[in-house]
Each structure stands twice: as structure tokens, then as C-alpha cells.
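PROTEIN ENTRY
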Amino acid sequence: MIKLKKVKWRYWIALIIAIIGLILTTCTYFATAIYSKDDVAVITDHTIKDTLVQKNRDVYNNHDETRKQILHLKILSGKYRGRTFIAPNIYYPSQMVTQKYRAGQRVFVSIRSGDPAIKNPKRDWVLVLALTVTIVLMVLVAGRESLGLVVSMALSWLLFYLVIICDVKLNGSYIILLFGLADVVFSFFSLLIVQGLNRKMLATWLATLLGVFVSFALCYLIMHVTGESEIKYETGDYATQDPRGLFLAQTLLGILGAVMDEATDIISSLYELVQTKKDLTAKQMIVSGRTMGQEIMGPLINVLVLIFMSEALPMTIIYLRDNNSLSSAFGFTLSLGVTQSVISAIGIVLTVVFATGCSLLFLEDKKWKARADK
């Protein structure tokens, strides 16, 4: 009965959050007065006039079109509220750098001298809806622990914002030191909020830091010895700071995500094993940690590779469609991501050793308690 009540409360809380989230999503969708920089408008056309301007074909025989929409915009905020304007929109069906608009869609516009210019669609309500779905699923799966997860996620975003502000203030100076300290702070507070301040949390934190910084130092040494050849920092989307420093900072954050996940899984499992099996030896614990690591390593590395491939896929297709060779496309779209994936993979492998080693502290602690009881 107690378990049934807990399950029911979990469902009720998830339902309440879903209702509140849908209300906030609706309010965000219809919100107009909260934006100071741009005005909000709605496309009033039931059928948008869409005409072909010209057909395009490049030297590689890639085909596209230039099309023109005539949009009727009703302004919903600002000093032009209530007025209707006619605005043209030039777009390409590929929609790489342009946007095709739909009837009834809400958009942000900038009006200068009575001439409206569409800036981008109003998508903030989509973010609120996505956040609502995320929190509801967390409550259904994790129960009361979801509160700690939400707080940890919010704190991580806040800390990340502060780190970015510091980086901008320092103009890119000491960027590796800054993001190295950020890794320490991120991991500590994330584990503290979710697990609490205890021996298991400290062991997980220690294993995480060892996995991050040892793998980063090892790969930095290899890069230094090889002269960082074939690493094209200039292909990254960096505009105002040292691209090499930003790449290394990006790598530090990437390693942290994979390593902390693995360290938490291994140490939590070994901690439960120590608590339940009284005659557990250090050798058995090491074998158990290695076995768990072997099962976790493959999926984690594959997840990293798939995330990277999905991110780089559009640009890779564009380079190949423009008749670039595979080696050229790899160098300009995939080389940095592959390097980061390899560094993270090394961290994942090393963390198996560090997490198992830190878990031996539980066994020693149990032995000391047993001696004290005698």
C-alpha cells in the first residue's frame, strides 16, 4: 500500500507539473509585451503568396531556387501595435541561411521608418514546452530525486553563464585554467546536490577529477610531442578569441560529461556491492569494477561518436556535395570533433581504473568499522 501511494503521488505531481507547464507554454506563446528589443507580429495570411524568382545551379550541378513570399504582418506589441504591414521574404527551399514562414506563425520584427524587417520566428514557447516534458519525465522516472536533478541542472547553467562572463571579461586569457576550475566546481556541486556530502560522493568526485585531468594531460602531451599536426583550429566557429584555447576548453567540458557519468555508475554499484556482501575482497572488487567498466565503456564511447557525427553531418554533406574530396571534407568538418571524441574516449577508459581504485576506500572503511566493533 505504501509503495502504491508513492507511485500515485509521483503521477499526481507529474500531472500538476504538466498542467503548469502547459499554462506557461500558452502564456509564452501569446506573450507580446515582455520583449524590449523587437516587436512581435503574427502572419495573418490564410494562404501565403509564394512565387519563384529564379532557379539556381552552381558549378557542381547543385540545384536550388530563390523564392519570394508576400506576408501580411499584424503587429502585436510596441508603438505600431494593431497596424498591418506587408513584408517580402526571400528564401531558398534548402533553408540553410533563410527561413520559410507559415500562415498564422508568430515572428519577431524590427520596424525602422515604418518598414518592417522579419528577424526570426518566435520559438521561445517551444523551449518552455520542451523543459516541461523533460521535468515531467524526470519526475515519473526519478521521483523525489528529480528535485535534486532539476536544481543541479539549473545551477550548472548558472555556473556556466558565470564562467562565460569571466572568459569575456578576461578576453580569453587563462582560458584553460578558467575552464579547468569550472570542471572542478561543476562536478562538485552536481554530485553534492544529487548524492549529498558523503564518502560515496567524495570518491565519485575524486575519480571524476582524475579521469578528466589525467586524460587531458596525456592527450595534451601527445599533441605537444606531435606538434599538433593536422589539427585545423581555424575550421572551428571561433571569431573573437584564440581558437586553440577555445578548442581545449571545449575538450575539458566534453571529457567531464562522459567521465562523471561513468564514475557515478561504477562507484554507486560498487558501493552497494560493499554494503551487501560481507566477505568481499579487494581482488573481487577490482574484478567487479573492471567488468562493469567493460560493459559501460562501449555504449558511452558510441554515444559520444554518434553525438559528434550528428552535429557534423550537415556540413559534411555540404562539403561532399560541392565535390570536395573525403580527406578535405574530413579536415574541415570532422577533424576537431574526432580529436575531442578520442580524448573523451581515453578519459572513459582511464576512469574505469580510477573509479575502481577510489571504490577500494569503501572496503577499507568497512574493515576499520569491523575492527572498531570488535
Q: What stands out?
A: Residues 301 and 345 are 6 Å apart (CA to CA).
